[in-house]
Design goal:
Helix content: under 10%
Strand content: over 45%
Structural class: mainly beta
Largest sheet: 18 strands, antiparallel, barrel
Oligomer: single chain
Distance between the termini: 24 Å
Radius of gyration: 22 Å
Order of helices and strands: EHEEEEEEHEEEEEEEEEEEEEEEE
């Protein structure tokens, strides 16, 4: 998945459809291979024999109609206004599978493939969002191998911690692909402390990415900190330090995360890029036995390498306010949000209707509108200001 899950109008050609059936077959075959010989009778519930594998399947289809206000230029590697008023469409399908074998082994697989992409192939790495095996190796050790979703940090919308996994897409954080491929361990020696580490091998092993994170529970507050060592495209080491915290009460909670990332290897502190995110969530009881959640989030980022140079100062501050879970009926609810970059005088308004006629079925309709002025060729902020209108529809089922 790209930096944004919303479709983008690009100057370059779009990908060709992946052979979705073949990828799905590979994932299902992988699940069969991953289930080993039966565990011992001692590990089986009630000592009545080996546990039966439990498989959960999720499938979904989505459609989007969009009006791009900006296109991507491969040469300058930036988004720029194109002055077009033509609408485009895109469809995609996804399949998620989780297979559990007792309490010791879990296989997670997810495929997400776009349709009507006729000009170039889509890579398997982008279509296969997740394919990992998790093994509970003991009372306090969990090992995970493969492509997995890594969610370090507390941000719900704006990522400050993004040195290891891709940043959240603020316009669709729930569907953002944060997959990384490698090995992970989690050591949990006690209820108030855990240690996690990841190793993401590169084709050149000396450029592999490694990360380490320690988490503490201090009273009712979760605290964590860690470090990441990676390399940029030129092979220069780009170390990063990060920390996050979260505390939730009965009806509200607050959270924050921060990162300091080197821009040029191990040089002076002045060469490090700084970012921080703070957020608040408040839950209100509502009619029809519902709960309305108010989420507010703000991010400051000193310098973003994905922003054109002339937008760095204007895009330093970003803000989000959203209401979700607003009940219309017992099976229909509404979500709305505003996402703004005040200094750049740009904002996105969005809303989404969710309908659940059955427990295992969900239908969603969404719309987003961008307020931004731009002349042809003017630089735009990535992930935020590339679509003027974006209309989406999707259905998801669980088995």
């Amino acid at each position: 998945m790209t930096r944004s899950s919303a479709p983008r109008a690009k100057a370059r050609h779009a990908p060709r459809p992946t052979r979705f059936a073949a990828l799905l077959g590979a994932a299902l075959l992988g699940s069969a291979v991953a289930i080993p010989a039966p565990l011992s009778a001692q590990e089986a519930p009630g000592n009545d024999g080996p546990p039966a594998p439990v498989v959960t399947l999720e499938a979904g289809f989505s459609f989007a109609g969009y009006d791009p206000v900006a296109t991507y230029d491969d040469e300058t590697e930036s988004w720029a206004a194109d002055g077009s008023d033509r609408w485009y469409s895109s469809e995609s399908a996804r399949v998620g599978l989780t297979a559990r074998y007792g309490n010791r082994l879990v296989l997670d697989a997810e495929l997400n493939a776009p349709f009507n992409r006729a000009d170039s192939p889509i890579s398997a790495d982008k279509a296969l969002r997740e394919l990992s095996v998790k093994w509970d190796a003991g009372d306090s050790v969990v090992l995970t191998a493969g492509k997995q979703n890594l969610k370090w940090g507390t941000a719900r919308v704006f990522s400050a911690v993004d040195s290891l996994s891709p940043a959240l897409d603020p316009l669709d954080p729930a569907q953002t692909d944060r997959g990384v491929t490698g090995l992970r361990f989690d050591i949990i020696p006690t209820w108030w402390f855990s240690l996690a580490g990841v190793a993401l091998p590169s084709s050149a092993l000396d450029r592999s990415t490694v990360g380490l994170r320690a988490e503490f529970l201090a009273g009712d507050t979760d605290l964590s900190f860690g470090a990441v060592r990676s390399t940029d495209k030129a092979g220069t080491e780009t170390p990063a330090l990060f920390a996050d915290a979260a505390r939730f009460f009965d009806r509200w909670g607050a959270y924050a995360e921060a990162q300091a990332k080197s821009a040029n290897g191990y040089r002076s502190v002045a060469d490090w890029d700084l970012a921080a995110t703070v957020g608040v969530q408040v839950d209100f009881p509502a009619w029809l036995n519902g709960t309305i959640s108010l989420l507010g989030e703000w991010r400051w980022r000193e310098n973003d390498p994905d922003y054109p140079d002339d937008l760095d100062g204007k895009a330093a501050h970003s803000a989000y306010v959203g209401l979700s879970g607003i009940p219309i009926t017992r099976r229909l609810d509404l979500r709305g949000f505003v996402l703004a970059v005040p200094k750049a005088e740009r904002a996105v308004f969005g809303g989404e209707l969710s309908w659940s006629p059955e427990q295992a079925l969900s239908v969603k309709l969404g719309y987003q509108y961008l307020i931004a002025d731009g002349k042809r060729g003017e630089a735009f902020i990535p992930y935020l200001t590339t679509l003027r209108h974006n209309l989406t529809a999707g259905v998801t089922v669980w088995y």
